[in-house]
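Tip: read the tokens left to right.
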């Protein structure tokens, strides 16, 4: 019989890109476990999901895997958002009956504004019905993978006989659209190709213009041709 969690408490963890996201999620999970209540994760970005760079996509993938591991109620990604953050937090909190919100105090996080009185006052006015936990986190160190890839460019993966190759002009036949991140220091099209499918980010390796691990592409490409 499935365990039924209490409904009078619900926790929302707000994460932005950086090395502290996992820590905040685990902090929220610990509190949710103690209270035996649902846990939600929220991240917000002004860009659409399929336009995320390699670093952002990597965080989304790790947070998605962690959410599945911890069996959180829902990982909410608000992409392509132009509204103020506090409006989005308030909307998500109301929709999910949130009673407690966890955010991180980080000098290089978009959520840093929450530590400033003016923003916090605005946020409290938007969601006066919740308790806030502002967690002190370490300043993120430089990403070990920075400098590995060039800036991402729009690209497409198409079928080429029994293989799949990457092209940079929109084809007139079935293809998979995404972002290609070329390795720095190579004369060939070597790197990674990231794309969105069924509301999740996926990644395949590209070697000399061809997909080197085509199993995922093959299954998705078969669907796209229908």
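Filled-in amino acids:
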């Amino acid at each position: 019989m499935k365990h039924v969690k209490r409904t009078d408490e619900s926790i929302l963890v707000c994460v932005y890109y950086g090395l502290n996201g996992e820590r905040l999620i685990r902090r929220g999970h610990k509190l949710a476990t103690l209270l035996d209540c649902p846990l939600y994760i929220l991240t917000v970005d002004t860009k659409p999901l399929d336009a995320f760079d390699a670093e952002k996509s990597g965080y989304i993938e790790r947070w998605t895997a962690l959410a599945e591991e911890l069996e959180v109620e829902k990982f909410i990604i608000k992409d392509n958002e132009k509204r103020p953050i506090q409006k989005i937090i308030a909307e998500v909190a109301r929709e999910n009956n949130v009673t407690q919100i966890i955010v991180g105090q980080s000098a290089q996080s978009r959520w840093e504004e929450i530590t400033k009185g003016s923003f916090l006052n605005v946020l409290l006015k938007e969601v006066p019905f919740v308790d806030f936990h502002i967690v002190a986190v370490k300043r993120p160190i430089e990403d070990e993978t920075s400098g590995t890839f060039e800036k991402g460019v729009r690209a497409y993966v198409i079928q080429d006989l029994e293989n799949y190759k990457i092209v940079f002009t929109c084809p007139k036949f079935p293809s998979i659209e995404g972002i290609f991140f070329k390795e720095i220091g190579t004369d060939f099209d070597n790197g990674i190709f990231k794309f969105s499918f069924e509301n999740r980010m996926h990644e395949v390796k590209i070697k000399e213009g061809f997909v080197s691990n085509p199993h995922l592409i093959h299954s998705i490409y078969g669907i796209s041709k229908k």
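The chain is about 30% helix and 30% strand. Residues 153-224 form one domain.
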